[in-house]
Amino acid sequence: MSSSWLENNTFHFADFADLDRLVSEKERRELTISLCLPTLNEEKTIAKEIIIMKSELMTRYPLLDEIVVIDSGSTDNTMEIAASFGADVYEADQILPSLEKFKGKGENLWKSLFVTKGDIIVYLDADIKNIHHRFAYALVGPLLLHEHLKYAKAFYDRPIAIGKSKVRPTGGGRVTELVIRPMFSLFFPELTQIFQPLSGEYAGYREVFEKVPFPIGYGVETSLILDIHEKWGLDVIAQVDLEKRVHKNQNIKALGKMAFVILDTFLKRIENLGFIDLKKKMYNEMIQYNLVKNEYKADILQIGGIERPPMIEIPEYRHKFSITGKPPGRQKQAMPESSDA
Amino acid sequence: MFTAPVGAGAATIGLTSAPVLIYLYSPGVLMDAYLDNLPTYVDRIQAIKETILTNIVLIGQIPAPTFKEKNRSVAFLDRLAEFQVDECTTDGYRNPIGVIRGTDDSKPPIFVVAHLDTFFPKDVDHNFKIKKDSITGAGLTDNSIGVGVLVSLPEIFRQLDLRFESDIVLAGVIQSIGKGNLRGVRHLVKTWPTPIRGAVCIEGVELGRLSYYADGMIRCEAQCTIPAASSMEYKFRPNAILVLNEIINQILTLRLPQRPRCRVIIGQISGGIKHGVIPFDASLGLEIQGDSDRMVKAIFNEVKDIVDGIRHEYEVDLDLKTISNLNAARLRYNHPLVKKTFAIMQKLDLRPVSGHSESELSIFLSRKIPAVTLGITRGVNYHLANARLKIHPMFTGIAQIVGVIQAIDSGVCDE
Fold first, then answer.
1. Could you give the CA distance from residue B136 to residue B130 in angstroms, rounded to a whole number?
2. Which residue of A has its CA nearest to B135?
3. DSSP H/E element including B45
4. CATH of domain B216-323
5. ipTM
């Protein structure tokens, strides 16, 4: 495994702090940029994200052209608050209403492709407590300043040596270290260089996002990396150190469900790629147990593993964005394939 | 002279391709012109609410307990620099300062100050929550909202198309509260090389307050310690909390005069380990306030005598330490700055409520620099970690601050 990717494609947010330069590069290349915040009951944090992004990256530096909130059906005041601070707010179910309706973060991201206008789309989780505009500009920065990069992903720990002998451990959360990293190590060792493949903050070109399928739930981060890597290679991917991120912690059962979905996504992809040959269809139920009044009771969650097709295959999308010609097939390469693929 | 929006006293001439707006300058006319315009400021300030809230969040979320304000201070200067303030620097005491250059070198500067430090230690969650019309979090009231607004002033002036004759000095002073004893602002004012034209001190709450006088004050702490080594010598070990209780009882017997007005506030008590163990140390925080420095000092001496007496009689380690002190100082009610501030607040439909202040105000007033303290907004849980402040009234609060700066710039303090 070559370490050149790690050296060449890993950035720090401070590398992109010159916002005037980013804006001028955006204007020179006549690009538009959308920020999308997928939400489900995020009334405690959504306003802060919108306010800071709007102030710093729209009013003061015209880097973003729109802020779009895609909501999965919040029961709190998320949508009202987001709208009151000037975001364009959509209920996911109301987008492409003729299609079957699903709930999930991946579904929101996929549908955002239909309602946003940007050539570049930045996705940020809406639960970041210490939100700062670097979360957006630092992800857009590599894409604007390095034309070969098409997809930039956030990480938060600093993988640097402190002094001569002290090294701070780096990496992701529990699901990353217990599920994704072992799987990457087994099948795609070069992808282990992506420190936090599950981070919810990334940016990419529309021309990339519209050509890959989106799992409707937690599997979306995994699938994006695997699919982009497969279609265009590792060299189009960058990662950016955003330093500290504070967000709500999930309990182990919630992480278990997340791990289930990610494994489901991962196994299906490596089967399609011919790495493994599953002799039997996988089950689609995550089974956990609770102790209720001295009795163990199964807590079964059906997780369908449903995926949306590449958006470019959706007729309404092709019509809206005036895309002509036949929809590309799933296997067709839309961009030159890299030697890493 | 500041350039005001179109209003009374304006005329246009057409010597250049674009019409030029000039003002027929007369201080009285000008004052009236901007007073009339003040209500329109509120909406124009609200138009950049995202920037103001962003400053409150980006600076206020950095913990800044007294003596540990460095990170917040750096962020304060960074933001001022981003807003292209003419000079961003620190003074000899590391108070971060931004100077917006005025149009008339001969006019002394106007100071706008807010203290950077808060009561909350670093390990308290400082991440704020914003809802439709409220912002919640630790330290907002005292004084993260004030600091955020202070940093936003360059952008607010730009939004209102305002320029001033005087330099505007934006100072986030450090080491202000508690044991900080206003060290930052004391140093800033003491070492500033020129006269100061006037000052506005910004506090988070409460909108409508107008402080133009500061009481004399001595803040002190009584610390009682029962030496552990000698505890065997006691048949009945003294109880540190009860010793302090005796001090309180004796203070309550003091006869305080109604004139000069003065009072003793027992503000803090702490001590002990757990319910069933006699406490071997405890502390009592109290403040003596009054409008006569002499009387405050006399009462302090009485409290000191009480402490000395109890130390002797109870045979315990008992100290009374002075943490901070202020001299009484005030502007007259009919001082032009006070009168004009009243007018500004009334123009904005605010009902001015007068009260004393123990903050930066007293340092300016004691040096004969006209100054007022103003609050920005309203809310609940002011001194708790979940202080919740309203967003909407904030824009009126900011408009009054801008109005007072304009008043000082137009000469109300120059008599």
1. 6
2. A48
3. helix B27-46
4. 3.30.70.360
5. 0.82
Which residues contact residue A215 at a Cβ distance below 8 angstroms, ignoring those fewer than 6 apart?
A104, A106, A222, A223, A261, A265, A305, A306, A307, A308
Rounded Cα distance between B249 and B252, Å, is: 5
Listed in sequence order, the residues at least 6 apart from B234 whose beta carbon sits closer than 8 Å to its beta carbon are: B226
Which of A48, A128, A243 should be substituted to probe chain B, the one whose Cβ sees the most B Cβ atoms within 10 Å? A48
**In the predicted structure, residue A171 carries a pLDDT above the cut 60:** no
Q: Is B3 on the interface with A (CB under 8 A)?
A: no
In this structure, the dihedral spanned by the alpha carbons of residues A194, A200, A201 and A203, taken in order and rounded to 10 degrees, is 80
**Vertex B379: Cα angle to B78 and B44 (nearest 5):** 55
Which pLDDT band holds residue A232 (cuts at 50, 70, 90)? very high
The one-letter amino acid at A93 = D
**A204: nearest Cα among A109, A322, A323, A268:** A109
Verify whether the Cβ–Cβ distance B50 to A130 is below 8 Å. no
Task: Please determine, for residue A200, whether its predicted confidence score (pLDDT) is greater than 60.
Answer: yes
| Domain B48-214+328-409 grouped into CATH 3.40.50.300 | no
Chain B touched by A45 (CB under 8 Å): yes
* Cα–Cα distance measured from residue B41 to residue B216, given in angstroms and rounded to the nearest whole number: 36
Where does CATH 3.30.70.360 sit in chain B? 216-323
The pair of three-digit structure tokens given for residue A259, joined into one six-digit string: 């791990």
Partner residue opposite A130 with nearest CB, options B53, B127, B132: B127
